[in-house]
Amino acid sequence: MSSFLKLTLISLLIFSTACQESTPEAKLEEDTWNWGFNIVKEQEKVVLMTDMLKAGNYPASVVNLQWLIRENPQLHPSIYEDGQRVYQGLINEAEDEAVRLRWERKKAELSRLQEKYFPRQ
Question: Do 24 and 49 sit in the same domain of this protein?
């Protein structure tokens, strides 16, 4: 990925965050993202994962998802929610039974990790 594209993606993410409401109600509803040591790389991967998911490009999305889970599994619960959609898309597109079963195992593993890091209250 070119430096220009990375800079553009990061700028868009920062701009959209800066444009959010700052009313007391909005403060109460804000999500807490547990950014790690490499916040720029994590933000880039989140943007890429969600954009590829929206475009239906599940193979590209899963690469970013797996990086996020490996590098910072406590980043945010939405990563797991989007990840479930990514894996379901891969399951639906799988033409080979063995591949489909592998994606189903990955989806189940993602559910276990989500429960571990973001238990339902």
Answer: no
Residues 22 and 46 in one domain: no
- Are 26 and 39 members of one domain? no
CA distance 93 to 99: 10
Same domain, 17 and 40: no
Of 77, 84, 76, the residue nearest 109 (C-alpha) = 84
The pTM score is 0.74
22-52 pLDDT, tens digit each: 443 333 235 789 999 999 999 999 999 999 9
Give the H/E segment covering residue 26: helix 24-29
In this structure, the answer to whether residues 64 and 83 fall within a common structural domain is: yes
CA dihedral for 21, 25, 29, 35, sign (positive or negative):
positive
pLDDT at 4: 67
